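Course assignment 3, question 2. Fill in each field.
Student: A.L.
Task: Predict the tertiary structure for the chain below.
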Amino acid sequence: MKRKPVLIKDVLDRFLKEYKPKKESVKNKILNKWPEIVSQDAAAYSNPALIKNKILLVNVSNSAWLHHLTFTKYQILEKIQDIAGKDKIIDLRFKIGNRKN
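Answer field:
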């Protein structure tokens, strides 16, 4: 007995409904709001790289922006905690590094 052909669109729709992540990850929430969190200017020179042990590592392109972001660390942390939850990120670390995600 031959099976009836199925449209790939139908297969993909069903797959995405079943396996789509239900919640946006903490890192993606932060990435999506990064320009609002740090400002458009600072976002052009920095990006959240990874979260380890509830500490967000932020890559910064040069020492001038690293210095600026370090001085505004607690304001940035407060905004991040408002977006992601106070228990998700407890500290920030800035380092000069590759800005790509």
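Instructor remarks: The chain has one domain: 24-96. Residues 24-96 form a domain with the GMP Synthetase; Chain A, domain 3 fold (CATH 3.30.300.180).
Grade: pending
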